[in-house]
Design goal:
With 257 residues, this protein is α+β, with helices and mostly antiparallel strands. It has one domain: Cytochrome Bc1 Complex, Chain A, domain 1. It has nine helices and eight strands. The chain has helices spanning 6-24, 79-89, 100-106, 131-143, 149-167, 170-182, 196-201, 204-214, 230-241; strands spanning 36-41, 47-52, 58-65, 94-95, 98-99, 110-115, 120-127, 220-226. The chain has a six-stranded mixed sheet, sandwiched between helices. It has a two-stranded antiparallel ribbon with strand order 4-5. β4 and β5 form a beta hairpin. α2 (79-89) crosses α5 and α4 packs parallel to α9 (230-241). The longest helix is centred in the N-terminal third of the chain and has 19 residues, at 6-24. The radius of gyration is 19 Å and the shape is globular. Mean pLDDT is 88; it is low at 22-28.
Length: 257
């Protein structure tokens, strides 16, 4: 086990609280079975929280990265969100000969990702019998990404359309303007989705360098909830994720907002 800084602990708690919030929205009442939990940290810095919940035959995994628009500049605005889109829709990785999206859906699963100013989250929900498969998918989605210039340009076009929709949405557009005025000299002022000008400047080289820097175990936390065996979970998570490296990680120094 390794110790974590207060900043990393706060990030870890944010990821775990997000998972618990999702569970609290369930309309199915839990059984009276006792709830067990475990928290540990791999040698490479990946923080892990396990929560045994037996009232649903589903496994829910959330992998959070301590990265968001706070880590961007005016020139790279929208980079994290573009990376999220690429991860979900252009990921070239294949599992058992199938692309990840198809492989997950064939097993009755759901997956998504979310980008904010402080965090990026990747989530997978599958029937509990596919727990090991879910862990392998999550590793492939998050840590085994490569970028292709043509695919990157296609995803940029998708986001440009998304930006135009946001400008027609009073709530989302108003929220963006509010952050611009509240934090004029801080990265929080940058729009999460970027701008047409900033997206045009993002190359394969830039997004690869950003990905290698921030998408590493020392900058991540994993939370798992479901009818799981805690000892088995710790063993398998260690086997699957412990080989990941932090070779390119360098924590940013951010001024307070």
């Amino acid at each position: 086990m390794i110790k974590s800084s207060n900043h990393n602990q706060l990030f870890f708690l944010l990821v775990v609280s997000g998972v618990l919030t999702l569970l609290s929205l369930s309309s199915i009442k839990p059984t009276s079975a006792p709830t067990q939990s475990e928290k540990f940290t791999l040698e490479n810095g990946l923080q892990v929280a396990l929560l045994q919940q037996n009232h649903l035959p589903l496994i829910h995994l959330v992998l959070g990265f301590n990265v968001g628009s706070k880590n961007e500049t005016r020139e790279t605005s929208g980079l994290t969100h573009l990376l999220e889109h690429y991860l979900l829709f252009r990921n070239p990785h294949r599992l058992n000969g199938k692309n990840l999206s198809l492989a997950i859906r064939e097993k009755g699963g759901y997956y998504n990702a979310h980008t904010g100013r402080d965090l990026m989250l990747i989530e997978i929900t599958l029937p509990a019998g596919n727990y090991l498969f879910a862990l392998k998918c999550l590793k492939a989605l998050a840590f085994e990404l490569t970028f292709d210039p043509a695919s990157l340009e296609k995803e940029k076009q998708v986001i440009l359309e998304e930006i135009s929709f946001i400008q027609d949405d009073p709530l989302r557009y108003g929220t963006s303007l509010t952050f611009q005025h509240l934090f004029p000299s801080h990265p929080y002022s940058q729009p999460i989705y970027g701008t047409p000008e900033s997206l045009a400047q993002i190359t394969v080289e830039k997004i690869t360098a950003f990905y290698q820097r921030f998408f590493c175990p020392q900058n991540a936390a994993l939370a798992v909830v479901g009818p799981i065996d805690l000892n088995w979970s710790q063993e398998k998570i260690t086997q699957i994720f412990s080989s990941l490296s932090n070779a390119h990680f360098s924590p940013p120094s951010l001024a307070p907002a």
